[in-house]
Specification:
Radius of gyration of chain B: 15 Å
Oligomer: heterodimer
Largest sheet of chain A: 3 strands, mixed
Number of strands of chain B: 0
Shape of chain A: elongated
Largest sheet of chain B: none
Helix content of chain A: 55-70%
Strand order of the largest sheet of chain A: 2-1-5
Number of helices of chain B: 8
Strand content of chain A: under 5%
Radius of gyration of chain A: 64 Å
Amino acid sequence: MKNSPSDVTQKVVGDMARNLAKMAKANPDTSSAPDDDVLKKVTEAELRAATDPEFAQQQEARRLALTRMQAERERLQSAGASREEIDKLKEEQRAKLEQDYKALQEGYKTMEEENKSLKESLQAQSMRQMVREELQGLGLKGGGSSGGVRSKLDEALDKYMADRIDGLIGGGNQPQVTAEEVRKMIAQGIEDGNKKQSTPQQIVDSIIGLITAGDEAKKKLGMGQGDGRYLAQTAGGGMRSDVLKILLEDERERLRMQYEHESQTERNKHLGTLAGSVRDNMEDMIGASRDMVKEHRESSKGKQEGQPQSEPEEGYQIKCSLCNEVLIYPEKPASIFDCPKCHGKLRLQEAPQGPPLPQRSGAQGSGPGLEF
Amino acid sequence: MTTRPELFIESYVRRVAERQAKRYISAFCQGMPVEEFRYAAEHDLNVVANLLRQLLLKPGEEKAGRKKAAPYRQMVEGLANTDTIVRLFTEVSPEHGRVAQQHRPWLERQIRSGLADVFGS
């Protein structure tokens, strides 16, 4: 019995309802139920599929694709739900990798150091072996040292090593350290001290350390001929006093040069000032000198030509017994006074009565001339 | 008494003072034209006296200035006589010197007044 259109319709409606239910399950987040337009479209599609086989095939293909898409979506959703976990896992893995890397680096460094020390020991060993072979070749037979008795090989080895080290740290076959080298060390010590802004005590200590470095090393290594060249002098502070003496000498020299320079500068400045003032007043000084010479010449010319002398000045005439200069004072001077010419101390004394001295017209107090 | 050193010193000091005075007179002549100087002389104005006062005393420090100038009184009074001043004026500026010569009594009064103001009568 063929299905009637009503049966087909019922079947289609039933299928539609089932599909709708599936869709609701597949899309739980859809808040709203499929609306009427969709329902209508789906109903029409189902009806057409029921009557048109081609349309039905297309619908089937679409349904399959939809199902596949839904399955994919579900898979992706399930995959998305664990994305955070994956990120967390990734972080953890990254941290772990970093730790491992650090551990590896440290291990690498340790291995490098071990490798280096191994290399050095290997080198020393090989060198020792070479030296031993050489010395054996020279006829020195070595043997194990027993109970403190040192073999000739060991002694020769020690001597060889001592010579090599002596040559490395200074001294050895080199000539004695000269004073110039010591001064260089001192200058170097001062420079280093100034750079580090050390105290004078520290600078002195560093200089002493530089000078005695070779001897100290030899002493510590237990080699060398007794005490070192400089170490012996450190007893009682001899080295320290010598170094201080050298430093003080340099400082004294520097201060002396500085003082000389300053005094020379000061002298030049004063000379310059003096020269300036002389230059400014030279004209006046020359003019005054010329006036003085002119005055003197006129007065002496008058005397030579026998011209009557100019009217004597008013006052007292006094003749100095030391320089025989005749002085004229406006007033009677004090009993003890200085001669303006020879600056001798004069005491006033009346001259013995003699021929009167020339009188002045209108002179006051002109009596017999007074002389010392 | 006049000895040779005294002659020298006197001459030297006089020359130095005259040189300085010439500088002051030169500055004065540059600042005051001849016409104004003549006007001041004709009308008996106190220009020279004021100049002397300003030269020797700083404004506001008159008392200290008088005390400081006291030791030089003799020298200044010996130099600041009318003949010397007229001669200096003539040497610096002949026109001003001519006016000073023409109005000599006025100049003399001015000098006396200025010195009295500085050193006291």
